[in-house]
């Protein structure tokens, strides 16, 4: 691909990008949030039509007017936004568009068999092929997406942040499959914000910034600092946070969770969080961490136990009571659980605190704009114009806006569920700094993340969760990544 | 909630449970009918109920496809009127049975495809595009018929469609065949699978290499075709074509489909539920008449029954998504 | 008014019957613009009303122009349409209101503006709102149907007859009036109305409701159907159910039904007229009003303030006599 | 690219562009009306158009809220009938003007709240819940009125609502006030913001600590209230209450709202667009009347005009999402 330009109204998403991929290699595409990676691969998949530029396939110039054209040519794509149909079964999703059928009649048994084979190849023979995809966890869905790409017998597979929703062991499975594919001569375009993954499987790296290629044909062992500098134009020393002085105020117990449980999800969860403390919750995908957070927040009704904030018990299953008590939640699924895509950034930011922006029911729009602009500048959200539509922001910036919502509200407890999912290195570092600052301001934080170094580097204390039970609790500096991994996998609590 | 732990078995159970409770409502109505009126549970009354249900049922089958594909078709009622008028003009009738039927089906299909093209290629909101078709088709039907009822002179036509095979009226056979064909098309073919996919997530379906626009146009074509067939059936039942045929069929069909468990936002639905939904509405009307209730009382109770039926039905699925 | 059957019935408005105009009145006079407003012609009878009006204007084209607003079942829309006609300053208004009570106010406004109003059929609330009313008598239509049926039952010596009724749109006052007349007439004979359903003046609802009614009543002695438009459906349901044991009476008097009555092969034996020819008469009256003429045969100098058409009972015996007023449903 | 241009301005521009082109359609219609008929552009005719538009316009304002909150209300038409009947019973009329108006508004509000409660707390699909209300309210209206038209005897009532202030008819004042109030409520208050939020993403709104259920119930309450007010206006206009009042007002209102640019899936919409939508439909009817078109031709053209208006309007926004 050479000189690709793609314009959206008001945005020049691609501004002359070049990308060359050779057979049998894993080509990594790096760039900040909003650099244009997803747009580029959508052009490659026939989903977007480029305004300028040329695509060559095996030496010949081609055009890709539709997704079918790309699929026929041999390009299969795993999109970043999950591109599955929640109401259809796993097998139906895998073979959508090239159904196993005879004379138009579907051959479901054959489809199920082949689906099982594909899932087995991905190390997940236990996922039933006739289960509805909407019932699977995000990780399960990611696997289906992957199986679908494999089902196409493609010569080039594009993976847009495939590991964003995966835990460590799943990532290893994926890498094994990628290695198999490249060994067969299939080329892979790989997009991820986790640089260590690129080191592990990447062969060559292309870096794009602001819709332009800024570096190509780098080797996978290019030093992190150099990559980050290329991506962001500035230096970031380390990707993950390093431990800092604790800001815990032991005297102030802010959040207290007692004997909390929900049937079939988790049971007997007890912990307290002090002012200025960051409590990390580690565990595998599916361990029930999101459920715990959502139950504390009142978004789910607890079957047992209580939650209190500053000694006052929250009403069970009532988000309002939690919000009033100063609890905020940045949920796991930004798009479906937190963002109002049709609204401006300011409107998203003030959603939870409309009462303080209204007099007699009328919104004070000037104050709304002023306050959200101030917060956005605090958080270094870019672009910081609060009147922009939030759908035009990159993922990392959207995440900041969600955090800003609770800061504007003045929350004392902030629950963060996978706050850095899909967020680029530069923005991550800023989020880490932000989380620290919040703690320093006396906010009690609970942090759920699938990335161990993140939990260990940020949290003061860590809970390890497995199968809905807390199996271990310890100060973060007494734990190593290996310990925690052992615990979550084997359940051999120390 | 993003990741509710509801294993497939459980969800399958919940769909079956809904269908079963819907079926329960139908059985309950039949029991009420039998108790309140001696003439309810007789062969000829059941014949009548089924014959009345037949055209609505056929329309509801087409509507099921449209709604599963996350669309809506408000035009079916007046397309029925248009097709019935077109197929019974003196000119058409002069060619006899076969041409009449083909004409009815073709008019329905044509109107449906126009809807589909406006929605899929013209990117019009389905509600508005089919509302426009509703108004225009009604006008055209009145224009063609000169606002008169056109009586069918072709005796073959009447003999064929008013007759019975094996003791079952022709109209009921047609209903049975259409529902069966609709079920197979929806659940056992690539076409049906893609219809679900489009309703569930059109963008993802497009990215999977499916021609979403063409498929959408075809789905509306199917709805139009069933409207055309319903017109043929109504002409047979009433021995006449008229621009007033099919009034309110769109609302009845949509209500039956939705009561039957198909979701208006698309991506999910069952053909069996639609059939039960249609039968429930027909049986309710029949019971009212059997008991000589006045229209006002009929209407009040009908609304209340719908609410109760739906609330009963959702009781099960509610527990599931309870937060 | 008199009807002038064959000659005008053969014009391009086949089936429409027009009034003659006699003596001096037949001569063209001063130009008159007549404004005409009726409900939506979604039904044979009302379509015939509009058609008859137009046919009548055709007959008087030398001195009459018509501004016909056709079309709505929403009273407030019809009010707006009449207002539009008033704004257009027509000479005379002919109004068949969707609902007489609701259009009264605008009728009165027209009269106040100096435009004489011919109120066609559904009557306004006050005579102040019209110059002349011409229309049928829904109550008497029911009475005549009931009286005919009662007489037939007596003739057949049926002591406790089961008498069914297929009404039209139940929420319209005219349906109420018809049903009331029917009930009263039967009561006078010591009978009562048995199973009753209400259709919606359409063939399809006529068929549907009758099919249900026939199942609810395994045996019937008589059946009155308010409206011959829906009658096609009613007959279809009766034939499908293969029922012959009762006699049926229709309403309004469509060509179709009168032919069937004459042929005497179906259950229908009579129909009570409610003829749309009244609209031809209304146009004729409007013209005379506009030209300040009286009605030829009457001694009055002025057009009378009210004319009620008669709901004759059409049977096999007198069917020929009424063939010309029959309308195409 | 991330920093540079401002898509917000762009989006604003595109909404404005749609509104402008919609307004263009209205102006075009007015020009056509003026050319084809001498009586079109006269004060008294414009009065007539506006007075006719007034009740539909009021209903459409309530419908705008419901649709922005991703709901639908099919019941408004028959709720209008019910409210008009209830407020004109002899008993109610005996208390005079104020009680009549309050009664009409209260019936509308009550019916709307029942809808809202069924949808929000009973978790019924809005389409079905309001369809049930549609049927029941119609039956109840017929029952209360004994299917008779109830003439208003209270002269104060008629004098007030049929009168004019400053040369503008009372009904037009009411329309203006309701549209203005609706605009403020939608765009300048917390209530409006929350309505948009619920329509855009109910789950996210719930997780922001907003009582989505109560708010939803209130939105349907507003729609019911506007239906009640429209009933008052229709009673004033027709000097009578009747169960046939309001027929098809739901379809007209939905069509006007959607033509006006409010999205049926919720989260997006404008009050000004709704007003223009209502005016377009009223002006079309008036032009037809002025030109003595028969209903069949009226209907055929109305459908075609809707299609053209929508296609014109979307031409701009299409380029935007074109991929
Ligand atoms: N359909 C669209 N309409 C308008 N703008 C768009 C559209 N899709 C993407 N953009 C804009 O194009 C730019 C590039 O987006 P893209 O999704 O390609 O970034 P990315 O590199 O994949 O970021 P991330 O790492 O967050 O996934 C962004 O500014 C984005 O807002
Ligand atoms: N790989 C999988 N395959 C099938 N089902 C799964 C899988 N992972 C999780 N689930 C189901 O999802 C449920 C909830 O898991 P969920 O992902 O919410 O937990 P979590 O600990 O919050 O994970 P995350 O790390 O994504 O936040 C589990 O109880 C399990 O039934
Ligand atoms: Mg991306
Ligand atoms: Mg989770």
TrEMBL record, chain A:
Signal peptide bounds: none
Nucleotide-binding among keywords: yes
Highest taxon, organism lineage: Bacteria
GO molecular function terms attached to this record: ATP binding
CDD domains noted in UniProt: ABC_Carb_Monos_I, ABC_Carb_Monos_II
Sequence ranges assigned to domain ABC transporter in this UniProt record: 1-235, 249-492
InterPro entries: AAA+_ATPase, ABC_carbohydrate_import_ATPase, ABC_transporter-like_ATP-bd, ABC_transporter-like_CS, P-loop_NTPase
Pfam families, A to Z: ABC_tran
PROSITE patterns for this protein: ABC_TRANSPORTER_1 (PS00211), ABC_TRANSPORTER_2 (PS50893)
Membrane-spanning ranges: none
Keyword field: ATP-binding, Nucleotide-binding, Repeat, Transport
UniProt protein name: Sugar ABC transporter ATP-binding protein
Organism: Kibdelosporangium philippinense
Automatic annotation (TrEMBL), chains B, D:
UniProt keyword list: Cell membrane, Membrane, Transmembrane, Transmembrane helix
Signal peptide: none
Subcellular location: Cell membrane
Primary location recorded for the protein, binned into one broad class: membrane
Membrane topology label: Multi-pass membrane protein
Keyword Metal-binding (UniProt): no
TM helices/strands, residue ranges: 17-37, 57-83, 95-118, 124-145, 157-186, 217-236, 271-288
Protein name (Swiss-Prot/TrEMBL): ABC transporter permease
Source organism of the structure: Kibdelosporangium philippinense
């Amino acid at each position: 691909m050479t000189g690709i330009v793609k314009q959206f109204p008001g945005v020049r998403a691609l501004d002359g990008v070049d990308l060359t991929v050779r057979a049998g290699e894993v080509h990594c595409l790096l760039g900040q949030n909003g650099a244009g990676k997803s747009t580029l691969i959508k052009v490659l998949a026939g989903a977007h039509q480029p305004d300028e530029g040329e695509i060559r396939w095996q030496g010949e110039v081609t055009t890709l007017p539709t997704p079918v054209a790309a699929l026929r040519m041999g390009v299969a794509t795993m999109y970043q936004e999950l591109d599955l149909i929640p109401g259809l079964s796993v097998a139906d999703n895998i073979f959508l568009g090239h159904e196993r059928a005879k004379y138009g009649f579907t051959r479901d048994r054959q489809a199920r068999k082949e689906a099982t084979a594909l899932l087995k190849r991905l190390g997940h023979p236990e996922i039933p092929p006739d289960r509805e995809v909407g019932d699977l966890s995000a990780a399960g869905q990611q696997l289906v997406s992957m199986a679908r790409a494999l089902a196409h017998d493609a010569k080039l597979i594009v993976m847009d942040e495939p590991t964003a929703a995966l835990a460590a062991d799943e990532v290893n499975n994926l890498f094994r499959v990628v290695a198999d594919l490249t060994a067969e001569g299939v080329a892979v375009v790989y997009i991820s914000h986790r640089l260590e993954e690129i080191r592990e499987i990447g062969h060559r790296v292309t870096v794009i910034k602001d819709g332009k290629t800024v570096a190509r044909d780098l080797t996978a062992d290019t030093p992190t600092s150099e990559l980050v500098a290329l991506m962001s134009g500035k230096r970031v020393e380390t990707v993950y946070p390093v431990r800092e002085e604790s800001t815990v105020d032991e005297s102030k117990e802010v959040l207290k969770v007692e004997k909390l449980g929900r049937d079939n999800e988790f049971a007997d969860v007890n912990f307290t969080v002090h002012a200025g403390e960051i409590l990390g919750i580690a565990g595998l995908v599916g361990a029930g961490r999101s459920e715990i957070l959502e139950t504390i927040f009142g978004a789910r009704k607890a079957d047992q136990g209580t939650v209190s904030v500053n000694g006052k018990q929250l009403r069970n299953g009532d988000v309002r009571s939690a919000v009033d008590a100063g609890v905020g939640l940045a949920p796991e699924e930004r798009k479906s659980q937190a963002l109002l895509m049709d609204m401006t950034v300011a409107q998203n930011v003030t959603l939870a605190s409309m009462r303080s922006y209204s007099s007699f029911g009328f919104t004070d729009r000037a104050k709304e704009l002023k306050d959200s602009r101030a917060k956005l500048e605090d958080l270094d959200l870019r672009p910081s114009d609060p009147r922009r539509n939030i759908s035009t922001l990159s993922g990392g910036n959207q995440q900041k806006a969600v955090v800003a919502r609770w800061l504007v509200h003045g929350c004392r407890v902030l629950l963060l569920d996978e706050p850095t999912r899909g967020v680029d290195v530069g923005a991550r570092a800023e989020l880490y700094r932000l989380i620290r600052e919040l703690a320093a301001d006396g906010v009690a934080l609970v942090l759920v993340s699938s990335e161990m170094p993140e939990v260990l580097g940020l949290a003061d204390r860590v809970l390890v969760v497995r199968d809905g039970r807390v199996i271990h609790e310890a100060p973060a500096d007494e734990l190593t990544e290996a310990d925690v991994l052992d615990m979550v996998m084997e359940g051999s609590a120390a | 909630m993003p990741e509710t732990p509801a294993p497939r078995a459980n969800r399958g159970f919940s769909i079956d449970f809904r269908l079963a409770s819907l079926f329960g409502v139908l059985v309950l109505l039949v029991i009420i009918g039998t108790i309140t009126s001696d003439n309810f549970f007789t062969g000829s009354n059941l014949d009548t109920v089924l014959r009345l249900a037949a055209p609505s049922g056929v329309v509801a089958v087409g509507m099921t496809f449209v709604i599963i594909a996350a669309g809506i078709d408000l035009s079916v009622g007046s397309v029925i009127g248009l097709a019935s008028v077109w197929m019974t003009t003196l000119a058409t009738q002069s060619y006899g049975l076969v041409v009449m039927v083909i004409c009815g089906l073709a008019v329905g299909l044509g109107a449906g495809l126009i809807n589909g093209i406006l929605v899929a290629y013209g990117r019009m909101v389905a509600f508005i595009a089919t509302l426009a078709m509703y108004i225009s088709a009604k006008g055209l039907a009145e224009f063609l018929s000169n606002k008169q009822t056109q009586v069918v002179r072709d005796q073959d036509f009447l003999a064929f469609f008013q007759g019975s095979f094996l003791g079952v009226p022709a109209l009921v056979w047609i209903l049975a065949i259409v529902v069966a064909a609709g079920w197979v098309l929806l659940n056992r073919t690539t076409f049906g699978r893609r219809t679900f996919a489009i309703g569930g997530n059109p963008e993802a379906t497009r990215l999977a290499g499916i021609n979403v626009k063409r498929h959408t146009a075809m789905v509306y074509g199917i709805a139009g075709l069933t409207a055309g067939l319903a017109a043929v059936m109504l002409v047979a039942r009433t021995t006449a074509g008229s621009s007033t045929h099919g009034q309110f069929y769109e609302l009845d069909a949509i209500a039956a489909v939705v009561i039957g468990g198909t979701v208006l936002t698309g991506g999910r639905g069952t053909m069996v539920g639609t059939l039960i939904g249609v039968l429930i509405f027909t049986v309710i009307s029949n019971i009212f008449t059997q008991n000589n209730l006045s229209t006002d009382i009929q209407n009040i109770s009908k609304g209340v029954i719908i609410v109760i039926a739906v609330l009963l039905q959702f009781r099960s699925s509610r527990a599931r998504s309870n937060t | 008014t008199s009807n002038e059957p064959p000659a005008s019935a053969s014009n391009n408005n086949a089936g429409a019957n027009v009034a003659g105009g006699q003596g001096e009145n037949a001569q063209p006079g001063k130009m008159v613009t007549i404004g005409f407003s009726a409900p939506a012609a979604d039904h044979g009878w009302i379509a015939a009303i509009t058609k008859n009006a137009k046919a009548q204007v055709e007959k008087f084209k030398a001195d009459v122009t018509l501004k016909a607003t056709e079309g709505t079942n929403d009273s407030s829309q019809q009010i707006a349409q009449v207002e539009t006609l008033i704004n257009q300053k027509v000479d005379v208004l002919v109004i068949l209101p969707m609902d007489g009570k609701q259009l009264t106010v605008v009728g009165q406004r027209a009269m106040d503006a100096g435009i004489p109003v011919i109120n066609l059929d559904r009557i306004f609330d006050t005579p102040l709102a019209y110059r002349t009313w011409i229309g049928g008598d829904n109550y008497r239509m029911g009475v005549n149907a009931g009286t005919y049926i009662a007489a037939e039952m007596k003739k057949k010596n049926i002591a406790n007859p089961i008498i069914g009724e297929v009404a039209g749109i139940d929420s319209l006052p005219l349906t109420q009036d018809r049903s009331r007349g029917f009930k009263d007439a039967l009561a006078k004979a010591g009978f009562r109305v048995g199973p009753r359903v209400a259709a919606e003046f359409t063939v399809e609802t006529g068929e549907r409701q009758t099919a249900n009614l026939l199942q609810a009543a395994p045996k019937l002695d008589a059946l009155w159907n308010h409206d011959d438009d829906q009658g096609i459906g009613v007959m279809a349901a009766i034939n499908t159910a293969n029922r012959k044991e009762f006699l049926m009476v229709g309403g309004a008097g469509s060509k179709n039904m009168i032919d069937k009555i004459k042929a005497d092969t179906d259950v229908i034996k009579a129909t009570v007229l409610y003829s749309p020819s009244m609209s031809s008469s209304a146009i004729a009256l409007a013209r005379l009003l506009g030209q300040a003429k009286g009605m030829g045969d009457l001694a009055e100098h002025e057009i009378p303030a009210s004319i009620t058409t008669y709901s004759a009972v059409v049977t096999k015996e007198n069917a020929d006599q009424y063939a010309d007023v029959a309308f195409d449903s």
